[in-house]
């Protein structure tokens, strides 16, 4: 006797089913239309619509027009519900190949259709054409999130920008002049701003946005980049700040009293000029509670740096410059209340750890140390911390993957034999 299986999913209300479909690739969502008459047109009411390389894979020249017409109907039907998210991703190669005059995708029209449906988030990863972004995109009252990846395009924004509800604005792989700064200044409730792998051809990057809570300048141009601009940031309510680049011409940062976390990856030459300029960058984040610092030279002269009274978590990545161990200990003297220290850099033989003056944070506040890429040259460094970290509770050591198992076991035995001065019950974890 055949068992009757109850279809409980189909009994859900349509809004819940549409929400479930929004998590599926568009092809899979459309295929659900054959389940039953109830499912036939549900995919057309999805609140999230995404087209990516998978959506377009396998299309031949004969059915490209069918795909284009399907998207037109899906987005432009007058009976559609409001749209939460519209995303075009990873279509660079495909779109260039198919926009040959015979198959012209109406990307601008698709964007306009999404805007007409009150879309809240637009995420575009496209090769750029001058007519691809409609002017109405920059005056949309419903837009909360805008992410643009235009593959090396030189962006120029209209002067009449009005995005009253925009809170998240991300750019990737693009070039900018002064118009982007005017654009940002007209986004009065902006909270999350990111420039990733971008570049500026302007005299300064001037961000005056009191509402900003998260800001990323991740240019990653390398240590030989010649930055001609000055970085000016007035964002007193910033909670997260990331800067990845060479040393700029100058920095002017308002005091960020609310700053919780910062990630600074900066490269440059160890010169008097770069030290003085870079110090201004660090001075602006002196209230931070968690700092991840990656440098390739001693471009921060510790005597020029402020005291980080609020800093309780510090991760250091010293990328191959001489004397980084001495620099690290000097910097720890500027962090009196540090509780967690993470070290991720190779140590070479010869560092005189026992001769270094002990920072007060080791004696009174440091509770946890994490060390990555451990090699045998780090034994003396670990001994230094164990000798002086008086209230240390946990030490986590991850062995370098390039070390063979015999060396790892030998190093572990050496670590277990080190003298511990902590008055707490110390937990030592060695990850082979």
UniProtKB/TrEMBL annotation:
CDD domains from the UniProt entry: F-box_AtFBL13-like
Gene3D superfamilies given in the database record: 1.20.1280.50, Ribonuclease Inhibitor (3.80.10.10)
Domain (F-box) ranges: 6-54
PROSITE patterns: FBOX
Pfam families per the UniProt record, alphabetical: F-box, FBD, LRR_At5g56370
Domain of life: Eukaryota
UniProt-recorded name of the protein: F-box domain-containing protein
Source organism (scientific name): Gossypium raimondii
